[in-house]
Design goal:
Layout (H helix, E strand, L loop, with lengths): L11 H4 L28 H25 L3 H4 L4 E7 L15 H6 L10 E4 L14 E10 L2 E11 L28 E5 L2 E2 L1 H9 L4 H29 L1 H23 L6 E9 L10 E13 L10 E7 L21 H7 L10 H6 L10 E4 L19 H18 L13 E7 L5 E7 L27 H7 L2 E8 L15 E7 L3 E6 L9 E2 L9 E4 L7 E3 L2 E7 L4 E5 L14 H10 L4 H8 L3 E2 L8 E2 L1 H9 L12 E2 L3 H5 L12
Parallel strand pairs: 9-10
Antiparallel strand pairs: 1-4, 2-3, 2-5, 3-4, 5-6, 7-8, 8-9, 11-12, 11-15, 13-14, 14-20, 15-19, 16-23, 17-18, 17-20, 21-22
Helix pairs in contact: 2-6, 2-7, 5-6, 6-7
């Protein structure tokens, strides 16, 4: 019978292990090493079979969760993901990012685990960096072969409510994690197939939506147990040695691919850039800096202690990042050497692939970890917060870091990276429905992606794989409002030789008094343009547009009152533009006006295109001579004279009137 984690004997090595997490728990667990000796050989066909099976199992787990869960956030918006890890806690799959197994193995040794066990946690500060805020609940199931743990199946996702100061468990003005909901350190939620009903009751009792929470957890636990059975069958079919050699081969291939195809594109040297969150929900709006100093070294020596081979390496140094915020925009990134952040940020590097088609083929799994070294500032910054600092809006930091990495790499490669995007913000309404029952509608709306050196940005994308906006038919049948418009926000994409993608415009009319909530950034600042491209339009929410009570709502709001009959208009961010707008093909500008993506006014204002005819008349075109004259009278972007990045007009309001930052020049 297994020993409770709080009373079992402790190995002396754990007692003296450094570092120790904020709860005083040791971190001397085994992780990150190879399963087989260097140079082990395996049939390449078997490697393909194993890799395909892993992807299939991961997708089957996600499909099962999507079909059996209950909450709109999980079932309909698909704000969750699964992951498969080996017994060294290395992520094997690359279709989606996932949380970490590290906190489970830290607290529950492998030899004490049994088939049918399900582990659970959502405690940000005890997650080793894998959980960003309390609504992200994580379940982990060990996979067994011949009585020993050989792998893990894990799922985590954003759930509707886990308690806290406001519905949805994301209070915008929180000053500690204690206001954000129920924090559960790693526990055994199922013991050898038997659910821990007491723990489940505690969690559901703390939720405003207990039935949805219970159903979602049951779906996730059952799906991961199913996935564990599928993987166990793989081990039974081919044997442990062959499968583990295949695991090593899969990760080795990723390491070599990124070393050869991606890191080789970045010139050796050191590059610096920074970007900002604009508010934290507590203090007045200000520039909360996130800075990256990127160093590319082609001949770094081997670092066996940290699992880093000799050869090319990226060193990402976050020194210069602002102090920990009073409000909930902090992110615990400095655990396990930044393991979660490495896999979170690495997809940005795929933009350096030779073609978009090749980019789509590149997975991000544990194989990228040896190629990246992260250096964090001392405790007490946005990325190294001290408990009990609040974290529920940590997307303001981890989303921004994607852009900071893209920007600093852009400086190294003459701009051949996408412009900026902001593709997560939480909006929603809550109150009493038409039958008098409590409801909560929380939605994660995407935005436009940045223009690229070869193409426009995409419209209304989402950084979470396979996520989507809530279907109108579903929301209107379940909640007391009507969706009057769901379309593209005209002119929201940043102007450029390659235009930024457009954000959403969504308008809902309330049928009953309610409260509106928003957790969003980029309402003052904007998604930056690069190499002459202009910033996109910022996020905006207006209640009763055109009516007697018209007012703009702050991007961080918990309980903005909306009256029955009033409309809420939400416009999400547009992506930044790439390249000088005066270099854009006028035919493409005409096409954008015909498609309703760019207004006729913006065609002239932003692109210098003089239109002829009309959209309604079906004869829209442009005057080539007049357009040439208009453009000739304007100054073209100059690398020598102008900033490499355009942050939009909102930046000056937070930067004492400065048009750009010192790091924006190259």
């Amino acid at each position: 019978m297994s020993t409770d984690v709080s009373t079992r004997p402790v190995d002396p090595a754990y007692v003296t292990a450094k570092p120790v997490n904020p709860a005083g728990l040791p971190t001397a667990y085994e992780h990150g090493n190879r399963l087989t000796p260097e140079g082990s050989t395996v049939d390449p066909i078997l490697v393909e079979i194993v890799q395909g099976t892993l992807a299939s199992v991961e997708m089957e787990v996600e499909t099962a969760i999507g079909r059996t869960s209950r909450s709109p956030m999980i079932r309909d918006a698909h704000d969750f993901r699964a992951g498969i890890h080996d017994r060294q806690l290395r992520k094997l799959t690359g279709r989606s990012y996932s949380a970490l197994v590290h906190p489970i193995v830290r607290d529950f040794p492998l030899e004490e685990m049994r088939e049918g066990d399900v582990f659970f946690h959502n405690d940000v500060y005890e997650s080793e960096g894998g959980i960003g805020h309390l609504p992200d609940l994580c379940v982990t199931v060990p996979v067994f072969h011949d009585g020993e743990v050989v792998a893990f199946v894990q799922a985590f996702g954003h759930h509707d409510d886990i308690g806290g100061a406001c519905p949805g468990s994301m209070p915008s003005g929180a000053t500690s994690v204690y206001e954000e909901g129920l924090a559960v350190p790693p526990i055994k939620l199922w013991d050898a197939g038997v659910p821990n009903k007491a723990a489940l009751r505690i969690m559901t009792r703390n939720s405003r939506m207990p039935d949805s929470l219970a159903a979602d957890l049951d779906a996730e636990c059952s799906a991961c147990l199913m996935g564990a059975r599928r993987l166990s069958e793989l081990f039974e079919r081919y044997g442990r040695e062959a499968i583990e050699t295949s695991f090593d081969a899969i990760l080795d291939a990723t390491t070599e691919t990124y070393r050869r195809e991606i890191l080789s594109k970045i010139p050796d040297g050191t590059y610096v850039w920074e970007d900002y969150a604009e508010h934290d929900g507590v203090d007045e709006p200000q520039l909360h800096t996130q800075r990256i100093t990127l160093t590319k070294v082609s001949d770094a020596p081997a670092d066996p202690e940290n699992g880093r081979p000799a050869g090319p390496r990226l060193i990402i140094d976050f020194t210069g990042t602002s102090a920990q915020a009073k409000g909930p925009i902090n992110h615990c990134g400095d655990y396990v050497g930044g393991n979660f952040l490495k896999k979170w940020l690495a997809p940005i590097l795929r933009n350096l692939a030779d073609t978009p088609e090749r980019m789509a083929e590149l997975d991000v799994n544990e194989g990228i970890v040896p190629l990246i070294e992260m250096r964090f500032p001392e405790k007490g910054t946005l990325l190294t917060p001290i408990h009990p600092g609040p974290t529920n809006a940590r997307t303001f930091v981890i989303l921004r870091l994607l852009g900071v990495l893209a920007g600093v790499v852009a400086k190294a490669v003459d701009g051949k990276m996408p412009a900026d995007q902001e593709t997560i913000r939480y909006t929603g309404v809550y109150g009493k429905d038409l039958e008098g029952n409590d409801y909560l509608m929380r939605e994660v709306l995407g935005g436009g992606s940045g223009g690229r050196y070869y193409a426009d940005g995409e419209d209304t994308i989402h950084v979470v794989p396979d996520s989507r906006n809530l279907p109108t038919e579903f929301t209107e049948s379940r909640f007391p409002f009507i969706v009057e418009r769901l379309g593209l926000a005209v002119d929201s994409g940043g102007a450029g030789q390659f235009r930024g993608g457009l954000g959403y415009e969504k308008q809902i009319r309330m049928l009953k008094d309610a409260h509106f909530m928003s957790i969003a950034d980029r309402s003052i600042l904007a998604c930056w343009g690069v190499r002459g491209g202009k910033a996109g339009a910022p996020f905006q929410v207006v209640i009763d547009p055109g009516g007697p009570d018209e007012r703009e709502v702050d991007a961080l709001a918990d309980a903005e009152v909306i009256r029955a009959g009033q409309v809420v208009r939400i416009r999400t961010t547009g992506g930044g533009g790439w390249g000088d707008p005066l270099a854009r093909d006028p035919e493409l500008v005409v096409r954008d006006v015909v498609w309703g993506k760019v207004s006729a006014e913006a065609a002239l204002r932003d692109y210098g295109v003089v239109l002829t005819g009309s959209r309604d008349g079906g004869d829209l075109g442009f005057d080539a001579a007049a357009t040439g004259a208009e453009r000739a009278g304007r100054a073209a972007w100059s690398r020598e004279d102008d900033a490499f990045f355009d942050r939009g007009p909102g930046y000056a309001s937070l930067a004492d009137g400065a048009a750009f930052a010192e790091v924006d020049r190259v």
